[in-house]
Specification:
Layout (H helix, E strand, L loop, with lengths): L3 E4 L15 H7 L6 H13 L3 E2 H5 L9 H13 L3 E5 L5 E5 L11 E6 L5 E8 L16 E5 L2 H10 L1
Parallel strand pairs: 5-7
Antiparallel strand pairs: 1-7, 2-4, 3-4, 5-6
Helix pairs in contact: 2-4
Length: 162
């Protein structure tokens, strides 16, 4: 099995909240209004517990009534508030994931795995980002470490078909 590595410097993230126990408290702690859209999107993302694209979120029945622009704005607001981080896949699609509550202040500081077959992405929380020395005086605005290949489910399906 071949696994390819891709280092991409394009993740937007900041964290201002602390650990809380409910979605409304998370929004309040981040200084955001608790609108029905924000509550629904953040609650659904926490239940999914994996990075999801805009299209994947719109395909979920309880979010299907949202229009494209409202969802994009909601996701960007959650990123800016530090409740969600976004990951740019090699397929050009941004995926969004809630911050692990066990790691407050985590700037998405972990690797991600992208399945080239089904497009699902997962956080590799036990794989921290490597330290990269940048030129003196440089400002790093983000980092991203993406491993891609086939997930266990897709690899198993291919082996069964052979």
């Amino acid at each position: 099995m071949e696994i390819q590595f891709f280092l991409h410097m394009q993740v937007t993230f900041s964290y201002r909240g602390g650990m809380t126990s409910s979605v409304p408290e998370l929004l309040r702690g981040a200084g955001l209004r608790r609108t029905p859209t924000r509550l629904a999107v953040l609650a659904r993302m926490e239940l999914l517990a994996r990075p999801c694209s805009h299209a994947e979120l719109l395909a979920i029945p309880d979010l299907a009534d949202l229009d494209d622009i409202t969802l994009y704005r909601t996701l960007n607001t959650l990123v800016e508030a530090g409740l969600v981080h976004r990951i740019h896949g090699i397929d050009g699609v941004w995926r969004y994931s809630t911050q692990p509550r066990s790691q407050p202040g985590c700037p998405g500081n972990h690797a991600h795995f992208l399945c080239n077959s089904c497009g699902r992405m997962s956080c590799l929380l036990s794989e921290p980002m490597p330290r990269v020395a940048v030129p003196e005086g440089a400002e790093v605005h983000g980092r991203h470490f993406l491993v891609f290949g086939r997930c266990a489910s897709c690899a198993g399906q291919q082996k069964a078909a052979e």
